[in-house]
Amino acid sequence: MSAMLPSGASLYDRVQRVIPPIEWPTFLDDIDAILELKQQRNAVVLAHNYQTPEIFHCVADIVGDSLALARKAMAVEADVIVLAGVHFMAETAKLLNPEKTVLIPDLKAGCSLADSITAADVRLLRQRYPGVPIITYVNTSVEVKAESDICCTSGNAKVVVESLGVSQVIMLPDEYLAQNIAAQTDVEIIAWKGHCEVHERFTPADIRQLREDHPGVTVLAHPECPPEVVAEADFSGSTAAMSDYVGSQKPPRVVLMTECSMSDNVAVEHPDVEFIRPCNLCPHTKRITLANIRSALEQNRHEVRIEPEIVGRARLAVERMLAL
């Protein structure tokens, strides 16, 4: 291995608070191989906030929420992008980097929200609500994006809704995100019935129990949670907003009502904050591992391809969002 490359062993200081020493040696071979393969192939790894710490802090080059990954993907100069996330994120990276090779380490890394709606559903909504703009959450397939007017993320949804200058919009597919944004704006929002299988399971009773068990805890909730959960929380925002909140407010004790690995990844940066960790696991993001990131780089799998006839329309919906 080149002397210029960091070694897996030297990276342990970053994650020692969240990865037990007994587990660390099991990651070293894959980490070292990935670091070398990235250099050999001029590749970068983009990792969502829900990836495990050994991916997020040790092999990823670009990290963040869906919006951050979408923006940063546009500036990538590498030949190969490995998306450590779920399939719709890899599709978005390919839309914004059509000349690059984009790999998803596991084709089954899907999303309950993306699975909740089809392009045919969107076309039927246009017939039912003629002239009403359709805002599609990035947690959707490229085919659904191609049928939409503009995309949004949980971090910019309110801005997108109000940017259109209309009194009524359709927001797809997350019902709870739509309801939570509707509570913040005068724009009428027509929602779909999709839900995130991670966030829909949190309840107000969970928060009340947390406050009883951990006096003084600050509760941060993702806007994909049900509105009654958001109402019980101290703050609601995207994964990036939650991370920023911890960094700026420094709550002594905090709980993040979102996917499990988010707390571990934020905790690495804030050793002075106590993280309470009741969380829900996303089975899709956890399909991404060091081993299949390594295999993706070694075997060029699985390359993301998008049907040419929908590329332009889908990219336009994403670019309209990024232009705001």
From TrEMBL:
Keywords: 4Fe-4S, Cytoplasm, Iron, Iron-sulfur, Metal-binding, Pyridine nucleotide biosynthesis, Transferase
The protein's required cofactors: [4Fe-4S] cluster
Uppermost EC category: transferase
Keyword flag Signal: no
Described purpose of this protein according to its UniProt entry: Catalyzes the condensation of iminoaspartate with dihydroxyacetone phosphate to form quinolinate.
Gene Ontology CC: one annotated term: cytosol
Family per similarity comment: Belongs to the quinolinate synthase family. Type 2 subfamily.
Catalysed reactions, semicolon-separated: iminosuccinate + dihydroxyacetone phosphate = quinolinate + phosphate + 2 H2O + H(+)
Domain of life of the source: Bacteria
Manner of cofactor binding, per the entry note: Binds 1 [4Fe-4S] cluster per subunit.
Protein name, as recorded: Quinolinate synthase
Annotated InterPro entries: NadA, NadA_sf, Quinolinate_synth_type2
